[in-house]
Specification:
Elements lengths: L4 E4 L3 E8 L2 E10 L1 H17 L5 E13 L1 H16 L2 E8 L2 H13 L14 H23 L1
Parallel strand pairs: 3-4, 4-5
Antiparallel strand pairs: 1-2, 2-3
Helix pairs in contact: 1-2, 2-3
Length: 147
């Protein structure tokens, strides 16, 4: 699976891969304003490719440190846009205490009440497995509504 989109600066980078209806973003280093702006633009293009179909997001941020306050504003914008565009599940591989705190804040501002601890995984395969189950459950539910 080659990166679909990527961007890098001296302080940090991201790359996106898409596996079925799961968007996988690998974040490394610090997320500055420029990285966050490009991230939002890239994610917007990927989301539009789903044409309203349910999808899931996996943030592989094991090497991510933190986002600047300006970048955090853009990341909140991306999170809100994802929810508005049928993102039905999310999972994160994240160890940075600052990054976890920032993600908690973003989710809280977006009105998400599910504890972040239930969305954090120790490895990408475990997170992918959970997201695949959640998407499959969603597909079965939708199939029953149609049929």
């Amino acid at each position: 699976m080659a990166p679909k989109f990527s961007f890098s600066t001296a302080s940090g980078s991201y790359s996106f891969d898409v596996s079925g209806n799961i968007v996988i973003c690998t974040l490394n280093g610090a997320c500055c304003d420029l990285v966050a702006q490009r991230y939002v633009a890239t994610l917007t293009n990927i989301i539009h490719s789903f044409q309203g179909e349910p999808w899931a997001y996996l943030g592989n941020a094991l090497l991510h440190e933190a986002a600047t306050p300006q970048a955090e504003t853009h990341l909140f914008q991306a999170y809100s846009m994802s929810l508005q565009n049928n993102c039905v599940a999310d999972a994160y591989c994240l160890m940075s205490a600052v990054g976890i705190s920032q993600l908690k804040s973003i989710r809280h501002k977006a009105g998400i009440t599910l504890p972040l601890s239930e969305r954090i995984f120790s490895s990408v395969p475990l997170a992918m497995e959970q997201l695949s189950k959640e998407l499959a459950k969603r597909s079965k539910k939708n199939a029953r509504l149609v049929g």
